[in-house]
Amino acid sequence: MNARISFRIRILWMSIFNIFLFLILTFGIVELFIKSRLMGYVMVSIVFVISVFLMLSEIALRKYNRKKSEKKITNPQSPHRKMLEQMLNKIPNPPFNINAFLAELDDYYKYGLTKKTLRSRVSTDYNGTYIKIADGIRNGISPSSNCEKKIFVLGGSTVSCLESPDEWTLPSRIQDQLNNLEIPKKVINLGVSGATTFDRFIAASDQDSIGAGDTLFFWFGVNEGKGLWGRRGKGILGFWPGFVEFFALVRKYSKSTIINWLYLELVRFDENAHRRLARTRAAELRKSFDDEFRKWAVKDVRVIAGLQPTIFSALSNTADREFLAKDWKPEMVTIMNIQYEEFRLSFAGATYYFDLSNSTNVEPSSAFVDWVHLSWCGNELVADEICRSGIFTNT
Q: How many CA atoms does the CB half-sphere of 158 hold within 13 Å?
């Protein structure tokens, strides 16, 4: 049976069961206090037994989930390992040993990708053949000559680029392009998996090595939409004010698997609500960037905001729609398109803003590992577009 159909049947059964349970409890209380005491006791006892059954089921589900988590820890792999391996094996003549790199990536994943500091998050240090991270900064290609000016590339996992060896990350490919153009600037990788631009603003402030003439290049777009998901109750529940917010709080703090099932079934994606949320987030981000731009301008440090590509923004022709529909839910495509539309509107006219969301308009199976993370050759394409645009060469 299809997994989604099976899930819906399970949820429907749980919904009917809970309604039935509520009715028994109601009639039981009525019988207990108004009519037949014996019938009331029987009904309440039935509810008690069923409640115990549900509680034990919840405990069993949590133990099962905990065992799955423990298994993941004892046998860790990167979240998109299979997809990454398939993609790497498709591209002819890779510039590194795929199996050795994947084995090292699995080993690094054991240590956790990030660690918490007092003010933000940094990448976990590691000393391998393909992955070298020291003091939260990932290793990369060295500049071809001694240089005083630096380019700090700040962002999330699409900057840390754990899908590629050190020499093939996005910052490394930018460095390689600058070396070929004989531009004396050193590129520094300050990417941290999961980091948002707001977090990277803090990370930049904590960098003592940033000086006059340097550049802060913020690679943003995907993580800035974290937590944004316009929702509405299904059917008649859509007319219940505050239903989604209330149910979301219950889901969050109860940590119940059953309540989580019910939430997913009773709440749906709402395009209008999502657009309002995305517009607010884009306005907040624009204001924050304006503040950072003015703050660093006083120190003669340039701030650049680059809107990163996703597989949804990079593909535009009609034939690609079949590709998108096959692997991603329609809501996901809509969510990202709305988010990027609002970013473009909000940042229009900003002198520090560059839209690079179409810089990988090529065959998706080679440029992307998944819908957002780039392959080593995808990083090469984007770095080439960045340097051709004159973002770094004109400073």
A: 30
